[in-house]
Amino acid sequence: AREYGAQWAINYKEQEFWKEVRRITGGRGADLICDSVGQDVQIGNMRCIANFGRVVIFGYASARFRAVTMK
Asked: Which of 27, 30, 68, 71 has the fewest Cβ atoms within 10 Å of its own Cβ atom?
């Protein structure tokens, strides 16, 4: 991704990606998450989305999403 101009690249299988997103954004979170993975990153996405941010789901590479109770 960096070869094509991405400022940051995070491998969700090698680290807790949501912590890195929070660090990069100064704790604010991401305004937009484009998710093609599905269940494996579902909870992490919720942990790193900004208030009023958007999550675009366009695939289920790992599995369909599970039901989550938002508190």
From this structure: 71
Q: Tokens standing for 55? A: 């999550």
Whether the model clears a pTM of 0.85, i.e. scores above it, the answer is no
Question: Who contacts 20 (Cβ-Cβ below 8 Å, separation ≥6)?
Answer: 8, 10
pLDDT in tens, the chain (71 residues): 899 999 999 988 898 999 999 999 999 999 999 988 888 888 899 999 999 999 998 877 666 656 666 66
Neighbour tally for 7: CB within 10 Å: 7
How many angstroms separate the CA atoms of 28 and 31, rounded? 9
Tokens of 61: 């590479």
